[in-house]
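User: Here's a structure from my thesis project, written as structure tokens. My advisor, Dr. K., wants to see whether a designed sequence matches the one we expressed. Can you design one independently, without my sequence as a hint?
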């Protein structure tokens, strides 16, 4: 399946929240969402309230929903919860999931020692990377992704300009900015990110669904 086709399956629900409507319905970090499509898989990057929100998870969780997360978030959740650490691989309902590092390098909100996560999903051969809350970290140079969703707001994560450098290291076919428009950051951050990659990597700024 092409990058363009898979990109049309990705919906930004605000902040870091994504819903991917492939053969399976996958939510990533549901936060401040309305009741929506029932989830086959829910991915939680880390335990901060705007990423691990049990109330929002409950809106889309069904009896057979699989939640994939790290050890700290797992303590707050119930149901079929599976714990990963950076470097782990898991297949859930036929979907390949890789856990990769996500941490701060020049601030203390997301310590590397916590082993919090970004995720890479493989959807019909297309690799989709959700970076989680992170700065531009050395491990990004080893990430193989066709589509990269990266935070751009600064403060708790990398700035838009740092996200440009990170995306150039990852070299996806398509980049999607996130982590703005809610707690911190605004549309200007997304536009700065897009401008910084003009002529280098295609950027799609998603409208909030």
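Assistant: Designed independently from the structure alone:
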């Amino acid at each position: 399946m092409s990058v363009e086709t898979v990109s049309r399956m990705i919906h930004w629900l605000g902040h870091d929240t994504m819903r991917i409507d492939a053969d399976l319905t996958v939510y990533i970090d549901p936060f401040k969402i309305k009741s929506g499509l029932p989830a086959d898989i829910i991915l939680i990057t880390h335990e901060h309230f705007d990423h691990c929100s049990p109330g929002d998870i409950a809106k889309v969780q069904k009896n057979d929903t699989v939640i994939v997360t790290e050890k700290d978030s797992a303590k707050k959740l119930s149901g079929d919860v599976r714990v990963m650490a950076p470097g782990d691989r898991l297949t859930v309902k036929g979907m390949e999931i890789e856990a990769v590092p996500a941490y701060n390098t020049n601030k203390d909100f997301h310590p590397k020692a916590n082993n919090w996560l970004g995720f890479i999903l493989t959807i019909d051969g297309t690799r989709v990377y959700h970076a989680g809350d992170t700065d531009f970290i050395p491990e990004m140079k080893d990430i193989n992704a066709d589509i990269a969703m990266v935070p751009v707001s600064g403060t708790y994560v990398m700035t838009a300009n740092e996200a440009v450098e990170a995306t150039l290291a990852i070299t996806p076919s398509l980049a999607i900015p996130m982590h703005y428009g809610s707690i911190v950051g605004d549309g200007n951050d997304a536009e700065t990110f897009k401008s910084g990659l003009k002529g280098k990597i295609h950027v799609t700024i998603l409208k909030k669904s």
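When you compare it with your expressed construct, this may help: The CA atoms of residues 133 and 157 lie 6 Å apart.
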